[in-house]
Amino acid sequence: MGHSKQIRILLLNEMEKLEKTLFRLEQGYELQFRLGPTLQGKAVTVYTNYPFPGETFNREKFRSLDWENPTEREDDSDKYCKLNLQQSGSFQYYFLQGNEKSGGGYIVVDPILRVGADNHVLPLDCVTLQTFLAKCLGPFDEWESRLRVAKESGYNMIHFTPLQTLGLSRSCYSLANQLELNPDFSRPNRKCTWNDVGQLVEKLKKEWNVTCITDVVYNHTAANSKWIQEHPECAYNLVNSPHLKPAWVLDRALWRFSCDVAEGKYKEKGIPALIENDHHMNSIRKIIWEDIFPKLKLWEFFQVDVNKAVEQFRRLLTQENRRVTKSDPNQHLTIIQDPEYRRFGCTVDMNIALTTFIPHDNGPAAIEECCSWFRKRIEELNSEKHRLINYHQEQAVNCLLGNVFYERLAGHGPKLGPVTRKHPLVTRYFTFPFEETDFSMEESMIHLPNKACFLMAHNGWVMGDDPLRNFAEPGSEVYLRRELICWGDSVKLRYGNKPEDCPYLWAHMKKYTEITATYFQGVRLDNCHSTPLHVAEYMLDAARNLQPNLYVVAELFTGSEDLDNVFVTRLGISSLIREAMSAYNSHEEGRLVYRYGGEPVGSFVQPCLRPLMPAIAHALFMDITHDNECPIVHRSAYDALPSTTIVSMACCASGSTRGYDELVPHQISVVSEERFYTKWNPEALPSNTGEVNFQSGIIAARCAINKLHQELGAKGFIQVYVDQVDEDIVAVTRHSPSIHQSVVAVSRTAFRNPKTSFYSKEVPQMCIPGKIEEVVLEARTIERNTKPYRKDENSINGMPDITVEIREHIQLNESKIVKQAGVATKGPNEYIQEIEFENLSPGSVIIFRVSLDPHAQVAVGILRNHLTQFSPHFKSGSLAVDNSDPILKIPFASIASRLTLAELNQILYRCESEEKEDGGGCYDIPNWSALKYAGLQGLMSVLAEIRPKNDLGHPFCNNLRSGDWMIDYVSNRLISRSGTIAEVGKWLQAMFFYLKQIPRYLIPCYFDAILVGAYTTLLDTAWKQMSSFVQNGSTFVKHLSLGSVQLCGEGKFPSLPILSPALMDVPYRLNEITKEKEQCCASLAAGLPHFSSGIFRCWGRDTFIALRGILLITGRYVEARNIILAFAGTLRHGLIPNLLGEGTYARYNCRDAVWWWLQCIQDYCKMVPNGLDILKCPVSRMYPTDDSAPLPAGTLDQPLFEVIQEAMQKHMQGIQFRERNAGPQIDRNMKDEGFNITAGVDEETGFVYGGNRFNCGTWMDKMGESDRARNRGIPATPRDGSAVEIVGLSKSAVRWLLELSKKNIFPYHEVTVKRHGKAVKVSYDEWNRKIQDNFEKLFYVSEDPSDLNEKHPNLVHKRGIYKDSYGASSPWCDYQLRPNFTIAMVVAPELFTTEKAWKALEIAEKKLLGPLGMKTLDPDDMVYCGIYDNALDNDNYNLAKGFNYHQGPEWLWPIGYFLRAKLYFSRLMGPETTAKTIVLVKNVLSRHYVHLERSPWKGLPELTNENAQYCPFSCETQAWSIGTILETLYDL
């Protein structure tokens, strides 16, 4: 039953663009694409660039996937195409509908990391990473002794900042040559090579089990990179980016201003070199506005030379043969920017000018006037540009002053001191590799290509910018508005859109990437959020080509998860770096742990085959990154240990930066730090600044915590619970759902320094459920007596006077932090340990390993052992024992295999009123609602909602945790019954015996697992007893066929009249009260919950409309036969009762049930093997004459064929009677005339007719009930005369009997009736011909207005349709468009001309087809109303008390006939039409599938309001709705 391959399903929906949704998968998973409801039936092709097995990945190469349809039939509910994922990276998919692209997205497949000599897997959640600044490692031959610190501290991944040659600034991220190893690593006598690095990385991987990653920097290169001087086209320079010229001019002016300030030239004007206060800042603002901007005149770069333009305009006006090209009248004169950005270089479109300013004659005065209008307009446009530049300048000053404030005045800033050439007022935005000259000379350079190409833009970052926009491209004013926080040591690289745009740069960076991927297992994408996506994609493709399982990490500062996802999905980022330093208190730190991984403790077991859910990116959660400020400065040294513990308990990758564990009390600057890291030496003393060991900082504790992090990840402790004990104490639990062991880490943070802040001595008690096996670790941050910290000149040293005192793997009574531990029990089988702390000082942690108490542990093991019969998932942690209940030794499937479908009805279903008949009811969940069914489906419907979301806070789960009521209800309800049902109950009870012995928080999860196992086995049992159509059918067919189990059952009291004792194969049971044998035939409920029990359960019409789908197609032939014969026994006046009322309370007030009954007999004979035998079966007649009292079964038996003949005979003779007990006692609304029943056959046409305007004898049987609206006793839809579906059904019956009589299977060839005292014979042949000859003549509303057959041409309002009736007492009712004619098309297609039928069906589709059902009336009809409200009582005649029941609301069962008619006639119209129709049918049915899956009733409703809105008055699951949809699937 359980397969353990993980399969995820991605439903494709029309126009669904999921580019910002992250779907994460693992290698070895299977991904299935399936069609969502909007696409079912349509021609959809899925394309992906995931390569064929063995092929290399090519991002641009897409292939189509083949559809697999396991059932090869009916519908598209199971059709899928799949990918077996064996390769890591980011892959794209999209799908076409026909030739139109209809949606798509990305999937990210995680890499598999391997380490060790045996190449074992390192799961991503086990990663513990430490960052090293490469330049602080010293000469290469000393690396190992420095890197050993990471190994000894328990890290398994090292992240190196770039190992390449650094630029002048010595920043780790400003690289002078991307291809060359930093020469600092070499000794004079020994050059260090990439090969050496590669060998070391390999050694670390094989011998230390440590994997290595390094940065790649694509955005910029050092300003002094030699290659950028040789290839200036790789940068944004003033030749390829002339739009930067104005920004360059401003930048130069600011540089000169800065130099002047440094030289003291502005001291008199209030700006000294040392800027110390607001007064200095205001002076800077004043001078820039008054001196610098006016001289620069930056607006001139954006303006038009007015005189020049006017002259040109005048010349054009005075040309003899001036021709004006017609221009768009909506185009106004605007400035066209000079692409070279010269002062006054802009222009305007003279064509627009000439059509805008037109002289009224050719005289010189008119031309002058025109020119002055033109001049005025140009001057206006120029001043608009002036205003715009002014606005940019305002922003530029604000940004500049903000920068000065941060760098020189702010408390948290670097406080740079006096302005100098080295530390200018503001960082320069551009390189200037020339001698300084005067300003006008310098400005002239920007137009000399051989000089301007070396004026290059620096890189940096822009606060709050859109990361998908490149801020150096045209259209961005970032450089002019001084919004860039600039890195003055790096030049921004200009890639263009594709390698051809800058071949050297792409090739250079690709080579750089390949070197990295050759030697390292992963990369960190530096500055990822401003790396152009297409560049990063290209480079990572090259890297993965060499290193298929490339581990890609990145830090994103986009501020939005959606935008993060764009990067993660496009680049296939494996882990996003998340910082604990972003937490402002311990509560927030705990929240981040919960956010970044794991599922709640006690989560439900998810199936292996399940929908693919959007994910959040996998986290690499770091207590501190190398960019972060120092936590010792921001928090306190005491917080290092507790915060690290909290971070390490997260169920994701974790990491830190070298220096944190040694308690280095300052940030280790990536730019200015030149000292080397300390080396590992076990013997070193705390005072030794160049070496460290387990006595240094928190290293000893870090080692224990890292090992624990790796153990929890490797052993599947995937459940997480975070408890905020008080404002400083956070307890994080990691729980294993298979062995049910927990590890609980209690950390007391120290965000405030304990020496200067108050921390309470009182620590709250903690309750830990289960049995504490050991204290894994207890550690306290303490001071020790050594010299205080002094910054060393050569080594990056930490604080020697603070360390940790740690003890590992001790018993609780040995603990120094725990004062005492008491045991409290909560309930009979729940241990709780109450922990009282004494030394949990700020900066301490204690970690417990907790098991379930031994008794519960055994119970869980036994449960898991018995659950392995359903899924291999439960093997781990299972325990085989012999002394369990003997019933558990039998596989559940073999108990289930003995159940009948009627017994399954009791186990799985039964709504409230059915259950009440047995003296029970449905389980009611406090603070929520009652379950829909008493059987397992009631519970499963709720669990199906809460399981995927792990909604453990749901009232259903609360009820399970609070007590055993629901558990006992489930088993006791079944045990109280007899036979195999009771055995199922006993099996459940035996399982629940162990369930009750486990901790309450685990009960929802195991209760669900037990029920899922039993439920799926029971469903399989049901399907095994059904027809091959169901057994080999799609999921939709199978789930729909369960409607047969749901609606067909035996009640405590028999609903059907008793069958003839002479009949074989009738089920019997022992009556519990009388102890006598009694018949127990299954009856069919019309619908749940309203028509399910007592006399209102069985209705003739409903039963026989549903019977073919519910019983015959599902292969339940005996039940179908018994129902046909039971109803046959109640025939009276030639009619089958509407309300059966067990036969004795039957009401014969419907004209159609008998014809549906005859149709079912015909279907039975055709579908069941030896089906014709039913015609000879004995029928026990309850009413042998119309007036006889009800006779007991067996008094008078007749073969079925005689009963059929009687029904035909009576109709031909004519039926006329008054209902028995007529009056309010049987119908409180009916008017007196309504109780008079008539039916007969028209001698001319052969049509069956009947009814009057006060009764409603067809399925549209709503009787008015409102006195206020004056419609009481008036049927909304009498449909008297000849209703179209009855004519069709009678034609079907007559034709079939004619065929049988020709073969002498049916002994009668005619009916004999009395006419005017004489016996007259009417042969079936004649009757059949009459209907055939008259049907289209009288029912078809011709497209030809002069058609002579049309009696009431004035009533025709739609042509090309079939009437709903013929000969109604209100003639206009005949002409209403309703869906009933489609029934006649299915049962008697011979009555219809194909072309006419098709046209009528198209009209019905356009006007009546709703999402789930058919509108019962044409929306163009004046009484149409699509919303049924049975409770509404107002003055509206057409609506009050639900009078519009069949005047618009969308009923489901007619849609089955509509679709079947479409299918039948489309096949006659030709293959193209058939194909289109199949698309329509599948598409409509997919909506029923969605409804069925979502419905807690697991059924299809009786009706919906318009456009499939929910109707609260409808039955939630209706037999005929399910039956006719099954018939449609059968026809497909």
Describe the structure.
- With 1532 residues, this protein is an alpha/beta fold.
- The relative contact order is 0.06.
- 34% of the residues lie in helices and 17% in strands.
- An eight-stranded parallel barrel has the order 12-13-16-22-23-24-27-28, surrounded by four helices.
- The two termini are 29 Å apart.
- The longest helix is centred in the first third of the chain and has 46 residues, at 364-409.
- The mean pLDDT is 93.
- Strand 22, helix 12 (533-546) and strand 23 (551-554) form a beta-alpha-beta unit.
* Total of helices: 40
Portion of residues within helices? 25-40%
Question: Cα-atom Rg, whole angstroms?
Answer: 43 Å
Give me the secondary-structure category.
alpha/beta
First-residue to last-residue Cα separation: 29 Å
Oligomer: single chain
- What's the overall average pLDDT, rounded? 93
pLDDT below 50 for ≥5 consecutive residues: which ranges? none
**Could you give a short account of the major beta sheet?**
8 strands, parallel, barrel
Task: Give a topology summary.
Elements: E1 7-12, E2 16-18, E3 24-25, E4 30-35, E5 44-48, E6 63-64, E7 80-84, E8 89-97, E9 100-109, E10 113-115, E11 120-122, E12 128-132, H1 143-152, E13 157-160, E14 164-166, E15 175-181, H2 194-207, E16 211-216, E17 220-222, H3 226-230, H4 245-262, H5 278-296, H6 306-318, E18 335-336, E19 347-348, H7 350-356, H8 364-409, H9 439-445, H10 449-452, E20 458-462, E21 484-492, H11 503-519, E22 522-525, H12 533-546, E23 551-554, H13 561-571, E24 575-579, H14 586-595, E25 599-600, E26 609-611, E27 619-622, H15 631-634, H16 640-648, E28 653-657, E29 679-680, E30 691-692, H17 699-714, E31 719-724, E32 729-735, E33 742-748, E34 766-769, E35 771-783, E36 802-810, E37 818-825, E38 831-837, E39 844-851, H18 854-867, H19 892-896, H20 901-908, H21 912-917, H22 936-949, H23 955-962, H24 965-975, H25 979-995, H26 1003-1024, H27 1028-1031, H28 1035-1047, E40 1048-1049, E41 1068-1070, E42 1077-1079, E43 1083-1084, E44 1087-1088, H29 1100-1112, H30 1117-1128, H31 1153-1167, E45 1178-1180, E46 1197-1199, H32 1200-1213, E47 1215-1218, E48 1236-1241, ...
Helix pairs in contact: 5-8, 6-8, 11-12, 16-17, 22-26, 24-25, 25-26, 28-40, 29-30, 29-31, 29-40, 30-31, 31-33, 33-34, 33-36, 36-38, 37-38, 38-39, 38-40
